[in-house]
Amino acid sequence: MPVNIPRELPARQVLEDENVFVMSTDRAQHQDIRPLRLAILNLMPTKIATETHLLRLLGNTPLQIEVTLIHMGSHSSRNTPPEHLEAFYTTFDRVRDQRFDGLVITGAPVEQLPFESVDYWDELVELLDWSRKHVYSTMHVCWGAQAALYRHHGVPKYQLDHKMFGVFDHDVLDPTTKILAGFDEVFPAPHSRHTEIRAEDIAAVPELRLLSTSPEAGVYLVGSADGRQFYVTGHPEYERDTLKLEYDRDVSRNLPIGVPHQYFPADDPGRSPRVTWRSHAFLLYANWLNHVVYQGTPYDLTQVD
Predict the structure, then answer these.
(1) Which amino acids are annotated as binding site, given as ranges?
(2) Active site residue 53
(3) 24: left (phi > 0), else alpha (psi -120 to 50), else beta?
(4) Domain segments of the chain: what residues?
(5) Which residue is catalytic, options 170, 191, 235, 261?
(6) CA distance 11 to 48
(7) 142 part of the active site
(8) What class, spelled out in words, does domain 3-303 have in CATH?
(9) Do the bridges between strand 229-232 and strand 218-224 make them parallel or antiparallel, or are there none, so unpaired?
(10) Which member of 66, 111, 196, 237 is catalytic?
């Protein structure tokens, strides 16, 4: 798929080197089609890495996508150069009058705080409420999923005794759902979190459907009954070394951290990690874009409701 992103965005060169089809704005304007309008609310501190992770997955269908990157205006990012945010990002205030076919809300390293203690919570609540009327379908990831489930349905999160950290096997509970079309019955995906949501809380909400769980990592994928909202508790977008970098960081800080589950060969951190989850990560986002967003969104975005 041609992902329409600015020529100067750092992710562009990485994706071109991997033969991911990216397209400049000027070339896109010469195609006589309406691209899907997709927004990414990037809550991660390492925004440049997260952009690359997500754009790689979004570049795997024949659809043309116009991407808008959003950051929280009420939060000051310490890990991304201000020049990068100024050049490539916008804020919620600047897009609140717009409509989008799809929205991805990333995770954030704030999961051990109460939701209301996060410094941008009020702004995020406003954006979450706005998304129900201005976006056809939203993919919520990790803490973004927890925050949205809490805001929209009152689903709580719970502190874990130990960090859920590594690559875990997951079961497909409903193979007929479009978002899981073509998935194996059991598939791997990475997790990195200190909190969880629980299956019994999802089951208590009639508007939600539990789509995939893990015997060890618990709830993985939740969907809304209308098939437009999805909540992923893990990180299918992670690259080969993402968990390794987190592990090395915590070890260097003398933090209590175990070797990531089912990640290093023979659980040896001295060996290169194996990538076992990438095909299902691509399939998850391709299914979302093809079967949910493209097939469901109205041509006229003013009709999104």
Answers:
(1) 163, 192, 249
(2) no
(3) beta
(4) 3-303
(5) 235
(6) 7
(7) yes
(8) alpha beta
(9) antiparallel
(10) 237
